[in-house]
Amino acid sequence: MSEDLRAELETYLHALKVQTTCVDHAPVFTVEEMMRHLQDVRGAVTKNLFLKDKKKKTLWLVSTRHDRQVNLNVLAKKLGVGSGNLRFADEATMLDKLKVGQGCATALALLFDKDQSVKFVLEKDLLDGGHEMVYFHPMTNSATMGIRPDDLLRFLKETGHEPILETFE
């Protein structure tokens, strides 16, 4: 199934005239596992967190550089949801909204959030940090796809997901 979704994503990106680069590798479930396969890529590799606000039930996808620490309490305050209110969303919700399971959350999966119910938080550095490419899983954790930052922004706008830009130190 993930290969069909990857093909659908690639078709969509091609229609937008977005050029990508892809590294196929064994399935990975952690950033550490993934980085072993990405030694030679030029750009920023991401990690992605699929979260929910326990009070309002709002869903959030957060994409940061792979080496950033994300303090959920600090992030919750920045997003105005109140400290202690952000939690990891369950896999069933991720499958329903983004069509991907554990280990595959990715900004590129926002293509499948047809009702734009997932709010997207993007680390500002991924857009304006001078990165040649920004890397995400393309609907599967057995590959990592690079996309230029300006093309990522265009993809997000086309899918109706205006990013909330944040800084993570």
TrEMBL record:
Pfam families linked: tRNA_edit (PF04073)
Alphabetical list of InterPro entries matching this protein: ProX/PRXD1 (IPR040285), YbaK/aa-tRNA-synth-assoc-dom (IPR007214)
Domain (YbaK/aminoacyl-tRNA synthetase-associated): residue spans on this chain: 25-155
GO molecular function: aminoacyl-tRNA deacylase activity
Family named by the database record: Belongs to the PRORSD1 family.
Protein name: PrdX deacylase domain-containing protein 1
